[in-house]
Each structure stands twice: as structure tokens, then as C-alpha cells.
Amino acid sequence: MVPAGDNYGLARVVVAVRAAVVLSIVVLVATGPEWVRRYPVALAVVLAAALGYAVVLMAHPRYEVRRTRFAWPVAVLDALFTLTLIGLTGGAASPVVAVLALAVIASAARLTFVECLILAVLLGTAYAGVVVWTTVDGVALEASTQGLWWALYMVFIAVLGGGLAVLIEREHRSRVDALVEAEAEHAAAQEERDLRARLLRSYEAQQEGLQVLLHEFRTPVASLDALVGALSDTATPMPVTDRDAAVELAGRHTRHLSEMLDALSDVNLSRQPAFSSGRVRRVDVAELTAEAAHAVGLAPPRLQMATTGDVSAVLVDAQGLRRVLTNLLENAARHGRDLPIEVVCERAGGDLRVAVLDSGPGVPPAALAT
Predict the structure, then answer these.
(1) CA angle, 103 then 107 then 112, to 5°
(2) For a 10 Å CB count at each end of the chain, is N or C smaller?
(3) Which regions of the chain does DSSP assign to beta strands (E)?
(4) Where do the Histidine kinase domain residues begin and end (predicted)?
């Protein structure tokens, strides 16, 4: 009856019922008993004005929209036309009295509850005055005519009541949608704040790591410089045993420097886009998983790890694996309903499998299909 995407759907229902009411009164005056048309000229003028009024509202349905500056003028005009037609068609005996109920119901689509009550009281008071001055005694419609008339007006009342029910449903749906949207915006803002905080902590950790590495570079470099000077001093050659010890010490310092350069390479890769590849090296997958879990705030007993096979020295892209594990563990921590999260590391031959299992709601089937 009321299209879902039409903002003026209910307004058009009310306007259509108003036009149908005016036309029904025209038919009643034309075919009813003589006492209904005691004032033919006045009736013609009022009915013509009422039809023109209905046409204007049909062309401008926004006048019927709920709680606007047009609400009271429209309600007052409805009441005036109704009371005038009651007075011209027999007062208390007039079938047009049924329109009073429609006028009150229609006003509920535009006014607040209190305003609608005020209108109903005023309309009832005015009706009492009209029937005192205009009622024709000893007249009534034929039973068949009266039956058809009230049957028709039951339909009008049902249409208006259904329209009001649709309006209430839409207002409720709009409030729910607004609440859901507000909650989604709040969640997005909170997630953005959390992301900024994590990025800041990551940056601070990298800066601290770089400072440690720079400090650690000084000792082996100074030692290598001294060893090179001693080994290249031809004036006082070193004994063979001391020379061998110096060469071994220089080798250890070189390996230490190489490991620190690898660490610096990992830090540099962590600042690259997510699709960049890291350096392949042997790592302890269980230890790497524990570090990724610590970065997102996961620790036992909520974090439960299980390993199958030897995962202590696996040749992988360490930085890339760390990024994947961090993302999976972060999602599990956020959506896992505070339940335990299990990480299973399995190595079979040259294959490595790492599974992050949580008790979250999962991905909807519709999203998986797309």
C-alpha cells in the first residue's frame, strides 16, 4: 500500500482517503433523502471547496507529513469542513458524523499525542454545538443505505489505521538504523585510536631497538679496529698463537656484526608495505609466534600453543610470517569473545602449517560466497 522508498507514501494514503470521503458525501447528497440536501447551494459551495482542498493536498503531499508547520492548519481545515457538512446534512442524524473519527485518526498522522487529544476535545465540543443548532428531528437513513455507508467507512478507517501502523514501523526502523550507524561509527573511531596507539608503540619499539643496535656496533667495531692495527704492525710482529686468537676473535666480531645487520634489515622491512617480502632465514617458529602474540597483548593462559615436528629451525621469510601471525592473532584477540586462542604449528618434511584457532562468530556464509 505504501512504497518503501516513498517518503510521502502515508501522506498520499491520507489524501486519497480524504478525496474518497468528499466524493462519498457528494453521492450521498445526490441520491439520499430530501432532508440531507436542505441547503443545496451551501452544500455545493462547501463540497466544491472540499474537493479543491483535496486536490491541492494531492499535489503537495508534504503538507500531510508528520509534525511540520502545516500539521495544525490541515487538521483545523479538516475539522471545519467536517463540522460544516454535518450541519448542512442533518446534524446528529447526518451520516457525515462518521467523518469525525477519520478526521481524528488522520490528525494522529501529523500531530503529537497531546496535540491529537487537544484536537479531539475541541472537535467534540464543536460537534455538540453544531448538533444542538442543526439537528433535524424524526429523520434517518434507510437501513440499507446506512449499512452500506458504515461498511464503506470501516474500509476508510482500516486504510488510515494501516497507514499509521506503517508510519510507526518506519519511525522505529529509522531510530534503530540511526542507533546502529552511531555504534558502527563509534567502533570505527575506537579501532582507529587503537591502530594509532599500536603504530606509536611499534615506532617507539623500533627506535629503541635501533638505539641498542647502534650501541652494540661500537664494541665490535672498536675491537676490530684494534685487532687490524695489531695484525698489521710489522715493527712488533705477534706470536703465531696470539695471531690465531686475534683472527678467531675478529671472526666472532664479524659474525656479530652480520647478525646485527640482519636485525636492521628486518626493521627496515617492517616499515615497507605489507606486500613486500622479507629476508629468508632460519627461525624458531614457536618463539616467533610467541613474540607476535606478545605484540598484540596475548599471553598464557589465554594463548595456548601446540607444536608437531621440529619447528625450532625453519627456513622462512621471518618478517612476512611475523606480519601474518600478528594480523591473525590480533583479529582472534579482538573477536574471540575473551575465550582461549590456540596456535598449532606443524612441520612435516618441507611443509610448515601454522593455524590460529579462536571461538569468534566467524565469517558469515554470504561474505564467504562473495
Answers:
(1) 155
(2) C
(3) 280-283, 303-308, 314-317, 341-348, 351-357
(4) 212-370
Ramachandran angles phi, psi of 7, nearest 5°: -70, -20
- Helix or strand or coil: residue 106? helix
- Can you tell me the distance from the alpha carbon of 18 to that of 106, in angstroms, rounded to the nearest whole number? 9
Is residue 325 within 8 A of residue 300, CB to CB? The reply is no
Residue 33 class from Cβ within 10 Å (0-12 exposed, 13-18 middle, 19+ buried)? Answer: middle
Q: What domains sit in the chain, N to C, each tagged with a CATH number? A: 9-141 (no CATH), 277-370 (3.30.565.10)
Q: How many Å apart are CA 3 and CA 11, to the nearest integer?
A: 12
Residue 27 cell numbers, joined: 453521492
Instruction: Please provide residue 32's backbone torsions phi and psi, each rounded to the nearest 5 degrees.
Output: -80, -175
Query: How much is the pLDDT for 179?
Result: 85
pLDDT for res 273: 47
Residue 173 Rama label (left phi>0; alpha psi -120 to 50; beta): alpha
With a cut of 50, which residues of the chain have pLDDT below it?
1-5, 273-276
CA distance 342 to 246: 49
Q: Which of 360, 304, 367 is CA-nearest to residue 333?
A: 360
Verdict on whether the full-model pTM lies above 0.85: no
Q: Cell 686475534: give the residue.
A: 246
Report the pLDDT value the prediction gives residue 45, as an integer from 0 to 100. 94
Phi-psi region of 197 (alpha: psi -120 to 50; beta: other; left: phi over 0): alpha
pLDDT of residue 271: 56
H, E, C per residue of 256-311: HHHHHHHHHHHHHHHCCCCCCCCCEEEECHHHHHHHHHHHCCCCCCCEEEEEECCC
β pairing state of 314-317 and 280-283: antiparallel
At 77-132, the pLDDT tens digits run: 999 999 999 989 888 888 898 898 888 888 877 788 888 889 888 988 898 888 88
